[in-house]
Design a protein that fits this description.
alpha/beta; Aminopeptidase; Muramoyl-pentapeptide Carboxypeptidase, domain 1
Length: 361
């Protein structure tokens, strides 16, 4: 386990970090000392990659720095163990997707779907079909890119799948991922009960006494083949004045991609919660956190107030408040699958309205 690198640190690992930052034009020169200039560059990098901006190089930031150093053509991309990761993979996935080849989510990880998409592309342009993205494949891609433009097929497919499954909740699979907070776990169980009553197949990523790792929770969500994953948490901060609800979905400006369904549900959840409670609206945000990026299904993380803020903490501890949040989430889930003409204004739908409309069947 690599220790976190922070202001005042030094050594070979700091030198490696500053080498990456210099290559990315975020730092003027390499150094083995973690000074204020390095901290500022790290924060700028974290901001650009959709990571939590701390100025500290933790394991996630270090991995993102390593991925960012690769450009398409720097190396031959192929299916291997461990899986190849990097901006070159993301660039490949983005170009394949734009040309209509289904490589799955643009996540910068060369997996089986990416290999199959490369093989389909190779077959279509008449180069050796081996699933390896080397010079010949890249040159063919660059030539074809000049005459083919596709838009966002992956995003269109996601929206089409959502529409195809219809507005009814019955039969859908939803994974609820509660944090270690007892109040959040209780809220999750309340949400589970409401969803099960409407015929939804619900999976919780933990029990009251079990606390699986994030990697395990991602694996559980992917194995469930979920329609939606909802991760429920409370934030914390050193200053108790920090307050409010924020919702996060998968998106990367550097890769030029975001989850259409994830962003839609993040928007609906944020609006419904804010319309029904007095929590401060801290808006929705695109992030590349592992839970959002590596979970195959549309995934959102909702930070339901700050446990370090007395007012927010008191609200979440109140069972009536949790019931209000459950109703907000239930309506947001249903609105996600409603067509535009059947939708309603934020904060106006009630679960009883959904039952009367027959949308539970």
């Amino acid at each position: 386990m690599v220790p976190d690198l922070t202001l005042g640190g030094s050594g070979d690992l700091v030198l490696q970090v500053t080498h990456y930052l210099t290559r990315l034009n975020l730092l003027k020169s390499e150094s083995s000392s973690f000074d204020l200039a390095v901290q500022s560059a790290v924060k700028e990098f974290q901001q650009s990659r959709g990571l939590t901006v701390t100025g500290v190089v933790d394991a996630i930031t270090l991995r993102a720095l390593d991925e960012a150093r690769w450009k398409l053509g720097d190396r031959v991309l192929t299916l291997s163990q461990p899986l190849m990761r990097g901006d070159d993979v993301a660039a490949l996935q983005s170009q394949l997707s734009e040309m209509g080849f289904n490589c799955g989510r643009v996540d910068g990880i060369f997996g089986e779907e990416c290999e199959l998409a490369v093989m389909e592309f190779q077959k279509s342009v008449g180069v050796k079909v081996d699933g390896r993205c080397g010079p010949a494949t890249i040159m063919s891609m660059l030539r074809l890119k000049k005459i083919v433009s596709g838009g966002a097929p992956m995003q269109l497919r996601d929206a089409a799948v959502r529409a195809e499954r219809g507005p009814a909740l019955a039969g859908k699979v939803i994974v609820i991922d509660p944090s270690e907070s007892e109040s959040i776990f209780d809220l999750s169980q309340r949400l589970e009960g409401r969803l099960v009553a409407l015929g939804v197949n619900v999976y919780l990523t933990r029990t009251l006494s079990s606390f699986p790792t994030e990697a395990r929770r991602i694996d559980l969500s992917n194995a469930a083949n979920a329609d939606l994953v909802i991760s429920l948490h409370q934030d914390s901060y050193e200053n108790e004045s920090a307050q409010g609800v924020a919702t996060y979905y998968y998106g990367s400006d550097s890769h030029g991609v975001h989850s259409i369904v994830g962003e839609r549900f993040a928007t609906l959840s944020q609006r419904e919660i804010c319309a029904r409670t007095d929590l401060l609206n801290c808006r929705i945000h695109a992030k590349t956190w592992d839970l959002l990026r590596l979970t195959k299904s549309p995934t959102v993380r909702i930070e339901l107030g700050y446990q370090t803020n007395p007012g927010d903490y008191r609200r979440v501890c109140d069972p009536e408040f949790r019931e209000t949040v459950v109703e907000a989430l239930m309506v947001a889930i249903q609105r996600l699958y409603l067509s535009a003409e059947n939708d309603a204004k934020t904060g106006t739908l009630r679960i009883s309205d959904l039952r009367r409309a027959g949308l539970r069947k």
